[in-house]
């Protein structure tokens, strides 16, 4: 069988990509690609360059990703700047963002309110509404795919990772894909589904942003999926006691089990919690950051490198015009992916009525998720990516880019993890 090729007159064919870009450093690696911080020689502009070996193309979602990215242009969506081809590789020249991940920003800020969460969700809704208007369904919306454009305090949110996106010109899809915990009930029920799956995911993200833990958590994926398919979630006390009824109404509308009754992005953008003054200014930082640390910190630093966007460690670079770093070694290393633990439920487990139950132990692995097509190199919620023959980073202190400290909750944090989409 011949090697699969990406066709298109818009490709730029070059003999050596280093004639176009100065390579500054490796940003991250995935199963099928490697991403570099590069500086375009002609313009002096910085980009994230995603490199994919042609012989690995049939294993990746690259062709689908390019098809989607070439069709969209929105201020809250990470854009594709250019596309190059050599004899052995394809290269996606992606917009570079440097503001870090959503959870990291919440932990770093020191004060956090419903209004802050509402502003984040409004930007996500505007971007996803644009996608839906262009017949594109993201299908893998989650906090890890929401990045800040720059380190500035008022930086905008950017949506990343379009590897599972779908051109849904006819409005109906059937492939089971996404990330456990964020996937809509109709996907798990193996029913035909529509762009409403993105709205469900936004509802899940909103829930997490207001309490710090996921709406669905179980010791194994069978129970997890059962809860999702029943839309069996609750607003537990005391975590939701200070959250407005307007916020809860917004979540109910987005996490409606029946996709035909679920809010569209247009309806969501008109909800008072998004455009009105019903989002509370009460500081919920202490509670939310504590739960984020308990439930998501590990997944942040252990997760696989997704493909194409620089994040936290670029803060130190400030896109300076300093002397170029030594170029990285030629070639793309062989990558092995190793499963690690999923984020667990809140430390004080609650039943569906908000009552305390016995403390649950986070599962060691989610082994049975094969029916779900994973997001790039993420067959479960959390993975480790290692080069063949090298040590996997199994502890926070082992991380090469981690800068450790404490947040206002007195818990350890990191603000320098190398991670790319």
UniProtKB/TrEMBL annotation:
Keywords: ATP-binding, Kinase, Nucleotide-binding, Serine/threonine-protein kinase, Transferase
Gene3D superfamilies hit by this protein: Phosphorylase Kinase, domain 1 (3.30.200.20), Transferase(Phosphotransferase) domain 1 (1.10.510.10)
Gene Ontology molecular function: ATP binding; protein serine/threonine kinase activity
Residues that, per the record, bind ATP: 54
Record has ATP-binding as a keyword: yes
EC number(s) recorded for this UniProt protein: 2.7.11.1
Family to which the UniProt record says this protein belongs: Belongs to the protein kinase superfamily.
Name assigned to this protein: non-specific serine/threonine protein kinase
Source organism per UniProt: Coilia grayii
Classification of source organism: Eukaryota, Metazoa, Chordata, Craniata, Vertebrata
């Amino acid at each position: 069988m011949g090697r699969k090729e990406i066709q298109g007159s818009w490709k730029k064919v070059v003999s050596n990509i280093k004639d176009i870009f100065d390579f500054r450093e490796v940003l991250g690696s995935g199963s099928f690609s490697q991403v570099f911080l590069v500086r375009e020689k002609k313009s002096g502009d910085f980009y994230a360059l995603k490199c994919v070996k042609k012989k690995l193309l049939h294993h990746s979602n690259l062709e689908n990703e390019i098809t989607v990215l070439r069709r969209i242009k929105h201020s809250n969506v990470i854009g594709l700047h250019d596309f190059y081809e050599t004899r052995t590789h394809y290269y996606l020249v992606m917009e570079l963002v440097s503001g870090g991940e959503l959870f990291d920003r919440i932990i770093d800020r020191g004060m956090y309110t419903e209004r802050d969460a509402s502003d984040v969700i409004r930007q996500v809704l505007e971007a996803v509404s644009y996608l839906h208007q262009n017949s594109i369904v993201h299908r893998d919306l989650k906090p890890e795919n929401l990045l800040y454009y720059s380190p500035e305090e008022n930086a905008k949110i950017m949506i990343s990772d379009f590897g599972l996106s779908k051109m849904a010109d006819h409005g109906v899809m059937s492939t089971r894909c996404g990330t456990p915990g964020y996937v809509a009930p109709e996907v798990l029920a193996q029913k035909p589904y529509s762009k409403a799956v993105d709205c469900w995911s936004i509802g899940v993200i909103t829930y997490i942003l207001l309490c710090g833990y996921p709406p669905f958590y179980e010791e194994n994926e069978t129970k997890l999926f059962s809860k999702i398919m029943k839309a069996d979630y609750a607003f537990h006390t005391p975590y939701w006691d200070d959250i407005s009824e307007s916020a809860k109404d917004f979540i109910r509308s987005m996490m409606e089990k029946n996709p035909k009754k679920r809010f569209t992005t247009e309806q969501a953008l008109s909800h008072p919690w998004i455009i009105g003054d019903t989002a509370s200014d009460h500081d919920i930082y202490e509670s939310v950051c504590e739960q984020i640390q308990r439930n998501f910190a590990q997944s942040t630093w252990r997760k696989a490198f997704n493909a194409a966007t620089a994040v936290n460690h670029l803060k130190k670079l400030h896109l300076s015009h300093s002397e170029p770093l030594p170029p990285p070694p030629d070639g793309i290393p062989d990558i092995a992916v190793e499963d690690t633990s999923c984020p667990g439920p809140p430390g004080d487990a609650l039943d569906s009525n908000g009552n305390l139950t016995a403390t649950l132990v986070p599962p060691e692995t989610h082994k049975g998720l094969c029916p779900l097509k994973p997001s790039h190199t993420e067959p479960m919620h959390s993975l480790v990516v290692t080069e063949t023959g090298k040590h996997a980073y199994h502890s926070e202190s082992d991380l090469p880019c981690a800068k450790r400290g404490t947040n206002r909750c007195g818990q350890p944090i990191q603000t320098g993890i190398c991670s790319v989409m």
